[in-house]
Amino acid sequence: MPWRERFSLTAVLVVAALAGLPWVLAWLGGTDTDSGLAVTVQLVLINTFILAVYAVSYDLLMGYTGILSFGHALFFGTGAYALGITVKHLGWPIWGALVLVVVLAVVQALLVGVLSLRVRGIYFTMVTLALAEGFYRLAQANDFAAYTGAKDGLHGIPLTGWLSRTDHFTRFYLTALLFLLVMYWLARRLVNSPTGRAMQAVRENESRAAALGFNPLAYKLVALVVAGVMAALAGAFNALWQGFADPGFLSVDMTIEALLMVIIGGVGTLVGPILGAGVLEILGDVLNRLFGPRWPLVFGLAYVLIVLYFPYGLLGTWRQRATQRRAGWARLRRLVVREG
């Protein structure tokens, strides 16, 4: 069976397993899906699904367009605050708030792109960092404390009805899984489209892409807008899930978290960042239970080992070694046929 068909079959089985996991765990534990081990696992996986969308959005920038941004948390945090303020203070419905999040993300990405994409390398990185830091300080400012909560953050975002995280916990889990699948499908459609291939041409050699008639600035802007919208929706979904929006959502630490997930899973793979989010969230949860407050130190050591033994990320290294194995088996078959 070709590897693409094997991969598709594996993906379907994994999604089916994740969808049925709450009922399997509830059956094993003798509880319902909203309590016991089932709810503990769902807690970790909901965080993983949301962070995976955020990581995939960052992979579109770094892995497929060659843009290293230190300000990606700007979109994540803005999405969280926009949803929180409109739902809590303005009384908007969830869907209306999500539409506003998308509009704000597009406008924000266009502004960031126009201001920063004309410079390259470290200069672009520093401009994005400065813009994100500006919004981070703005969220902490006391002038808007009535809406943002300043340094304490915006707490008490209400969520009732069919998506209530307290009344319909498993429904929220399935919605988060569906959110990840839809965002991944959109990202995959983009990178396999002519626009996505032009983005990758810009990543490989911007000058050559320009010589062939592509406009690098336009394709970078497309990548930034799509990645910004995905990150903002992830931030909004995170605010729905957590029930608050915090200045930490806009901090450089949040951007570094996306960078870690992409590097751990594999740059330029889309599936890799999802694996990276799983490793970061699940391994972090396990280490926290084992080592308490010292878990970041242990995780740092684990991260060093992953980088040493999987230099292209988990998925990237696996693909490279699979290619080497197939080439080795092909050489062996040729030798056997020749000797025969």
Automatic annotation (TrEMBL):
GO terms for molecular function: branched-chain amino acid transmembrane transporter activity. Its main location: membrane. Pfam families: BPD_transp_2 (PF02653). Keywords: Cell membrane, Membrane, Transmembrane, Transmembrane helix. InterPro entries: ABC_transp_permease, LivM-like. One of its GO terms (cellular component) is plasma membrane. The keyword Manganese does not apply. It is found in: Cell membrane. The chain crosses the membrane at residues 36-56, 63-82, 94-117, 169-187, 217-237, 258-283, 295-315. It is a multi-pass membrane protein. This is ABC transporter permease. It comes from Ardenticatena maritima. The lineage of its organism: Bacteria, Bacillati, Chloroflexota, Ardenticatenia, Ardenticatenales.
